């Protein structure tokens, strides 16, 4: 998952792509923790301020350190021309805005670099848990299966089906990043999503999960390709490689 940045000394950034992704995920997390400081803001207002401030900081950092790259973010118009750019950063400055605003720990910052539609570096921070996961340092997920399936609060038909067929106990977790990292840490064996999401919701989580040796694909088993003209990525599965065959066979019965 490495690629050497050959940007010709632009602004003299001394950070590799991997380091930059991790620092952005961690730094935006610190800003978001600051936004929640002291219970001075609450509810939707708190979520809006979090989205805005994390986005502004990330945009400034990327503009300074990687001015030639394009950026796709949940919270802003595209930077650069994604159709022609080889290098595109895909960012969710605050995934799990609702959980963030309600005081929960289940929210994340997603930072991924894609090149030709493939993820080359990714970082996901879970700031309220003090964790940063990076594709260049994450350990391979091993150990016994937990028998658990990470799900959204409202499970889709596909999720209920897989849970029943594979005998996985559904555990609701907020934020796509937090759910994916639960599979990376072994807390859950799989995260299955159907019914809609955008590339920023799952790109960095999938990048870290792939680097941890997990199976990641669309529900029909095909690879996930990023930086599409319309960045909708509505369904995918992240699971332990031991479950891959049973998972895809079970999904094939309904998908
Ligand atoms: N059906 C759907 N359509 C679009 N986005 C969805 C979605 N279901 C979940 N998401 C997005 O996926 C992220 C994780 O959601 P959840 O925790 O409910 O599974 C959230 O991102 P944001 O918080 O960045 O908006 C949420 O908006
Ligand atoms: Mg999101």
Automatic annotation (TrEMBL):
Keyword terms, alphabetized: Magnesium, Metal-binding
Entries under SUPFAM superfamilies matching the protein: Carbohydrate phosphatase (SSF56655)
GO MF term set: 3'(2'),5'-bisphosphate nucleotidase activity; metal ion binding
TM ranges: none
Gene3D superfamilies recorded: 3.40.190.80, Fructose-1,6-Bisphosphatase, subunit A, domain 1
Required cofactor names: Mg(2+)
Binding site for Mg(2+): 74, 92, 94-95, 201
Catalytic activity: adenosine 3',5'-bisphosphate + H2O = AMP + phosphate
Single biological process term from Gene Ontology: 3'-phosphoadenosine 5'-phosphosulfate metabolic process
InterPro entries: CysQ/Inositol_MonoPase (IPR050725), Inositol_monoP_metal-BS (IPR020583), Inositol_monophosphatase-like (IPR000760)
Protein's UniProt name: 3'(2'),5-bisphosphonucleoside 3'(2')-phosphohydrolase
Originating organism: Gordonia amarae NBRC 15530
